[in-house]
Amino acid sequence: MPPVPRYRFQVSQSRLAIFLSAGFRPFFLSAALWAAVGLPLSVAYLEAAAELPTRFPPSIWHAHEMAFGFGGAIVAGFLLTAIPNWTGRMPLQGPPLAGLVALWFLGRIAVLISRSMPAGLSAALDLAFPAVFIYVVAREIAAGRNWRNLPMVAALALLFIGNLLTHLKTMEIAETGLIGAHMGVATLVMLVALVGGRITPSFTRNWLAKTAPGEDQPSPFGALDRFALAATLVALVAWVAFPDTTPTAVLQIVAGAALFLRLLRWRGARVRGEPLLFVLHLGYAWVAFGLLLMGANEIFSFMDSTATLHALTAGAIGTMTLAVMTRATRGHTGRPLVADRGTAAIYAAITLAALLRVLAPFTGDYYFVALAAAAAMWSLAYGFFALLYFGMLTGPRAV
């Protein structure tokens, strides 16, 4: 029997080591693949076109997997890549990172097949990943004495609590499935408002300084920014605690308007020629628009409330996620911070997905066609990201 060529094993091991060298690599790829596959599954489940072996009702499974499955992986990929820059410590990599990714996958499987096991067991398996991840992030921030970013631990705790509340529904302990899902979405939207509000003007300022030094720069962080973030936090808390009420709607409109005014001060129109940068402004605009739309719809009732919510989920979270994933992947793998045609196509697909989902209630007899088209565009955006960026995420840094 001829010997197995050693070089193939060595190459495979080297590529695996590269893949597990930074959190963004396995988590961004896993999140993109789950987004591409999970959303069509949830749409089929919602429309009774398919039956899934889960204890979760269709709407809660959809919200759970998008907020805590997909969203949890995105947050993990971002934080595990950002924290070493914040603390100066080595990133989580190798077997510990592989173990964390395995816990995330275990949670997805446990929720998907939860009907075949005790509800408490599926909950424990799913909650293992966020619990361990909270510990990892808290340990790194404390060890690096990076107290400025300690609120990230609070955000992760809220995601954990929201996830737990959805499981309490499946365990028939409390009717908290909807509030848990809302808490997950609200936490992700607040992270977009905070992190997007930090990186969008910063990257815009750097780009303008290089390409148009005489141009006006984005306005520095000030009173309007503080008010907009505070108003967004209050509006999101009110939506979780008191949804479908006029006072909450007013708070949403105030927050949306403040975020929109904040966005106007970042000179987004001047970077429209660079999709990798302009998409950050577009993602932030979806946050402002989503809050305005939800608030206005609660008062005037002109469209389906689930469609207005998707301005925040498919629009803000979906767009900003791809914006951060593409930019971080290109930057951390040594690629030019310029969007190629494939990347621009990803942005176009996610924008079309969000628009179709929000406008679906106005398509009359073609409502379900519009929903299917929106899901297809979402899957295309994230599936194409996985395909286009696979080599970057699994291969060595460009020289």
UniProtKB/TrEMBL annotation:
<feature type="transmembrane region" description="Helical">
    <location>
        <begin position="221"/>
        <end position="242"/>
    </location>
</feature>
<feature type="transmembrane region" description="Helical">
    <location>
        <begin position="16"/>
        <end position="46"/>
    </location>
</feature>
<feature type="transmembrane region" description="Helical">
    <location>
        <begin position="66"/>
        <end position="83"/>
    </location>
</feature>
<feature type="transmembrane region" description="Helical">
    <location>
        <begin position="276"/>
        <end position="295"/>
    </location>
</feature>
<feature type="transmembrane region" description="Helical">
    <location>
        <begin position="95"/>
        <end position="113"/>
    </location>
</feature>
<feature type="transmembrane region" description="Helical">
    <location>
        <begin position="180"/>
        <end position="200"/>
    </location>
</feature>
<feature type="transmembrane region" description="Helical">
    <location>
        <begin position="338"/>
        <end position="360"/>
    </location>
</feature>
<keyword id="KW-0472">Membrane</keyword>
<dbReference type="InterPro" id="IPR010266">
    <property type="entry name" value="NnrS"/>
</dbReference>
<feature type="transmembrane region" description="Helical">
    <location>
        <begin position="307"/>
        <end position="326"/>
    </location>
</feature>
<dbReference type="Pfam" id="PF05940">
    <property type="entry name" value="NnrS"/>
</dbReference>
<protein>
    <submittedName>
        <fullName>Protein NnrS</fullName>
    </submittedName>
</protein>
<feature type="transmembrane region" description="Helical">
    <location>
        <begin position="150"/>
        <end position="168"/>
    </location>
</feature>
<feature type="transmembrane region" description="Helical">
    <location>
        <begin position="119"/>
        <end position="138"/>
    </location>
</feature>
<keyword id="KW-1133">Transmembrane helix</keyword>
<feature type="transmembrane region" description="Helical">
    <location>
        <begin position="366"/>
        <end position="390"/>
    </location>
</feature>
<keyword id="KW-0812">Transmembrane</keyword>
<feature type="transmembrane region" description="Helical">
    <location>
        <begin position="248"/>
        <end position="264"/>
    </location>
</feature>
